[in-house]
Amino acid sequence: MKTLFSFSTLIVMAFLSYQAVQPEQLPAVKEAAKPPAAVIEQAAEADCREPILADRVQRARLEAQILASTARVRLETWSVASNDAGYEIIHSENHATVKDGRTLVTHNHFDIPLSLRRSEEEPEIYTIIFIYSAAGELRHRGLLSDFAIAMEDPETLLLAHGDAGFLTGLGFTPAAFAGWDALPPLAGVEVAQVDWDGGRSRVDWVTVGAVAVDEGTPRIELADGTLKGASGGGIFWNGRHIANNWKVERALDAEGEVVFERTTAALNSPRLLNG
Fold first, then answer.
1. What is the mean pLDDT of residues 104-114?
2. 268, 108, 250: which is closest to 191 by C-alpha?
3. To bridge 95 with a disulfide, which of 64, 112, 220, 233 should be the other Cys (CB 3.0-4.6 Å)?
4. What share of the chain is helix, strand, coil (3-state, %, to 5)?
5. Measuring CA to CA, which residue among 265, 243, 245, 247 is closest to residue 179?
6. Is a pLDDT exceeding 50 seen at residue 178?
7. Is the pLDDT reported for residue 228 higher than 90?
8. pTM (2 decimals)?
9. Cα–Cα distance between 173 and 139 in angstroms, integer?
10. How far apart are CA 64 and CA 62, in angstroms?
C-alpha cells in the first residue's frame, strides 16, 4: 500500500506540474518598447554628424598648423630723389611660408625689385622688410639686405636670412614641403589656400580645377580668388606646402559684380626642397 500511495502521489504532482506550465496560463510577454521616431532620427543624424565633426576637427588642426607657418611680408622701398627733392616710397604687400629657421618661400613677381640694396650712391635706395604673423602681429622690421635670394624659380622665390634660427626665433613654425614630382593627379582634389582680409590671414578650402604647364613650370588653377596681397601665400595638400599663389583672374558683369574668379598657383619644383 505504501508503494502504491507513493506512486499515486507522483502522478498527482506530475499532473499539477503539467497544469502549471500550460501556455494559455502563462502571462503575456510584453514587446520591448520601441524608441520614438524622433529618437531614431536623432541617432541617425548623430551617426552622420560624427564624420563631419571629425573632418572639421581635422581641418581646424591643419588650418592652425598652416597659419603658424604663414608670414605676411610688407616691403617698403625708400628712394631719395636727387637734389634733395624728397623721398619716394613704394609699398608691396605679400605672403610667404616659413620653410625652416631662416627661409621664406614666396612668389617671384614683386613690384619692388629685390635686388635693391642700401647704397651710398645717388639716389640712395634701400628697402625695409616688415614681417607679420598670420594674425597681423608685427614680429620684425629691418633691412631687406639682411636676407639673400637662396633660390629662384620662374614663379617661386626663397629668401634666406643670415641667422639660421631667425624665423623660428620670431615664433614661426616651419612647414612641410613637397615638390610636384611627389604629387598625385590633383584635378578635382581639395586643397588649403592661404588668403587674407586685409588684416588677418586665413585658410580657405578650394578645389583644383586643372593642372597646366607653362614655360616648364607646372601650375594649378583653383576655383577661387584671393585678395590683393595674398600673392606668395601657400597652397597645402595633406598638410604639405605644394604651391604658392601667383595670379588671380576675375570676370565682372555690367554692374561690376564678380561672376568668375580663378587663382593660378605655381607648384614647387623638386629643387625647392633642397634650397
1. 80
2. 268
3. 233
4. 25, 40, 35
5. 243
6. yes
7. no
8. 0.75
9. 14
10. 5
